[in-house]
Amino acid sequence: MSVKIFVNMPVRDLAKSIEFFAALGFKHNPAFTDDNASCVVFGDSVYAMLLTEPFFQSSLTDKEIADTGKSAEMILALSLENRERVDELADKALAAGGQFVKEPQDHGFMYGRSFYDLDGHLWELFWMDEAAAQG
Predict the structure, then answer these.
(1) pTM (whole model) above 0.70
(2) Domain span at 37
(3) Domain ends where: 13, 46, 61?
């Protein structure tokens, strides 16, 4: 079975959010991009749909959009190929306007850094030595 994930995220300013993720090196799929949305491609099977808040609210849910300044809605974690890539992307996120969360977490077999994006969504970038974690 082939499974893909499309995480739908409300954003206040679509153009700024597109610029933010482009600054981290992620591409946007133009086939799924218009005035209301943009598709960020993280990998072959992982995507984020950045949706303007009015579009998110009118098309996907009747619930109020979470205030990320007051509550955590989720943590979006991306597994990367090595520690250096974790640091590279975290530094790019902070330079592009992302917000610092906490100091890097180093557990030997696993290393991670976190940031808030422009809309307060919490992202975790991590590397893990799966063989060491199991043994």
Answers:
(1) yes
(2) 1-61
(3) 61
